[in-house]
Specification:
The chain contains ten helices and eleven strands. The chain has 269 residues and is of the alpha/beta class. It has two domains: 148 residues, 3-Layer(aba) Sandwich (Rossmann fold); 107 residues, 2-Layer Sandwich (Dihydrodipicolinate Reductase, domain 2). Helix 4 links the parallel strand 3 and strand 4. The chain has a six-stranded parallel beta sheet, with helices on both faces. It has a five-stranded mixed beta sheet with strand order 7-8-6-9-10. Catalyzes the conversion of 4-hydroxy-tetrahydrodipicolinate (HTPA) to tetrahydrodipicolinate. Its main location: cytoplasm.
């Protein structure tokens, strides 16, 4: 067991943190060596198994990210931008693979992740599932095949607690559509409509966001032309698909050269 990669989970109490913790505990390819939460969190000092409502597993949640990551071969991080950027610096110092599922990262955040990737493997994706990454590839190919007579709209739906919009996955899909058309997404994106907006701009890539209930994640890419529509869709019903993808990325990153990667690299797509 000691030869298996040791993995640290950031934000262990969150929805994805719990799923990731459970996934690593069940894996025969990795060891769970750390679960990190913010100082003052009620889970700190507790056995993570008991904190999740199950049996003891012999590992206590810590608020000492520095010590936890220093021992790790990989860190899986579905937290918040500020936490992720700080974690990237620690993972780079430890030469640990940093798997990032955090969304809502800004330009300055991405610059700091790029700096960290000079020293360690950084795998970042708005979505870790196989199905979504296949959808990204399909979106790029369909966009390349169709001209601007077809309007592109990315529609995403998530649970009521999600704090950012559009989702990271929606932005991945929009970026793929823009690449397929050979344009910069920043020049053609349309993220909101309200009031008298006028007609849709030719070539625009639109985004629509739905928030409600406990929706895990639904993404549609609509290519709407005169008299016909093409719909590409992915529906996630279980967060375990994201946890499995993140663990796959953490294992894939072992032995890779430092740099920035995504799930298409991990999946060989």
């Amino acid at each position: 067991m000691e030869t298996l990669p040791g993995i640290v989970i950031m934000g262990a109490s969150g929805r994805m943190g719990r799923m990731l913790t459970h996934g690593v505990l069940q894996s025969d390819k990795a060891r769970l060596i750390g679960c990190v939460e913010k100082p003052g969190h009620p889970w700190v000092g507790r056995d993570v198994g008991e904190a999740m409502g199950g049996p003891r597993v012999g590992l206590h949640v810590t608020d000492d990210a520095v010590s936890a990551i220093a021992q790790a071969q990989a860190v899986i991080d579905f937290t918040a931008p500020a936490v992720t950027v700080a974690t990237a610096e620690l993972a780079a110092q430890a030469r640990a693979v940093h798997v990032i599922g955090t969304t809502g990262l800004g330009d300055e955040d991405l610059k700091r992740l790029k700096a960290a990737a000079r020293h360690a493997v950084v795998v970042r994706a708005g979505n870790m599932s196989l199905g979504v990454n296949l959808l990204v590839q399909l979106t790029r190919k369909v966009a390349a095949a169709l001209d601007e007579d077809f309007d592109i709209e990315v529609v995403e739906a998530h649970h009521r607690h999600k704090v950012d919009a559009p989702s990271g996955t929606a932005l991945m899909l929009g970026q793929a559509a823009a690449e397929g058309r050979g344009v910069a997404l920043s020049e053609v994106e349309d993220r909101g409509r309200d009031g008298i907006t006028g007609e849709r701009a030719r070539g625009a890539i639109g985004f629509s966001s739905i928030r409600g209930g406990d929706i895990v994640g639904e993404h549609d890419v609509i290519f709407a032309g005169a008299g016909e529509r093409i719909l590409l869709r992915h529906v996630a019903t279980d967060r375990a698909v994201f946890a499995r993808g993140a663990l796959k990325a953490a294992l894939w990153g072992q032995g890779q050269r430092p740099g920035e990667y995504d799930m298409l690299d991990v999946l060989g797509l």
